[in-house]
Amino acid sequence: MNIFICDDDNLVCEQIKTLCESYYIEHKLKRPDIYIFHSGEDILASDIKPDIVYLDIQMSGIDGIAVGNSLVKSYPAAIIIIITSFPEYLDEAMRFHVFRYISKPVESKRFMRNLEDAISEFNSIGGRIIVKCKGKTYVLSAKDIIMVEVNPHCRNLTIHTVSDTYTTTQTLASIKSMLPSGSFYQSHRCYIVNMNYIMSYNNSRIYMENHLYADIALRKYNDFFNTYSAFLTTLR
């Protein structure tokens, strides 16, 4: 992952860099490559693809609004977070789909929450999800997930991959929000299946690879049938 920080105040740049590094160390994640720029001209001259961008609005030369508009044209998937003391510029910034807005001075707890959201968004776009399991944070490839199921008795859910299982207290809705919608289907309030791993099904159950199965809610069978049929046509 490439994180860009663009601000004409070097102290702000160093603070954001330190907070980013602290998050990755705390969550035992592979550290990103962090690039610091002090002007709009510098960041636009870079030939490195940005994944997450922390962008100041008021800078000498090319301002943050112009930089943001240019970045999203070149890198539509870039996640842009505005860092500024001037909220009156937010309306203009929203035109290039700003992901979050953080006011100066930067408050560390809010920054960490927004960074976690940005990483989740990045992994969702890139087909990866973040799972917290037994005090550790794992980054899983969505294509390796066979299914997700909720244990209704203890509120935990289990993510079954081709090679392992992960139990977490994250909600099914939060996991679903990170999964690519084109290949995953929620067949029941307790199950999400990866349609790439379906072996067979009937009107009440879906049989998956690795001897797994998921229930189909009665009211969802017709929708499942139509969705899965459409999915199969994309594989031909």
From TrEMBL:
SUPFAM superfamilies: CheY-like
Modified residues (4-aspartylphosphate): 56
Gene3D superfamilies: 3.40.50.2300, LytTr DNA-binding domain (2.40.50.1020)
Entry keyword set: Phosphoprotein
HTH LytTR-type domain span: 129-198
Cross-referenced InterPro entries: CheY-like_superfamily, LytR-like, LytTR_DNA-bd_dom, Sig_transdc_resp-reg_receiver
Domain Response regulatory: 2-119
Tagged with keyword Ubl conjugation: no
GO molecular function term, any single one: DNA binding
Function text: May play the central regulatory role in sporulation. It may be an element of the effector pathway responsible for the activation of sporulation genes in response to nutritional stress. Spo0A may act in concert with spo0H (a sigma factor) to control the expression of some genes that are critical to the sporulation process.
Protein name (database record): Stage 0 sporulation protein A homolog
High-level lineage: Bacteria, Bacillati, Bacillota, Clostridia, Lachnospirales
Gene: yehT_2
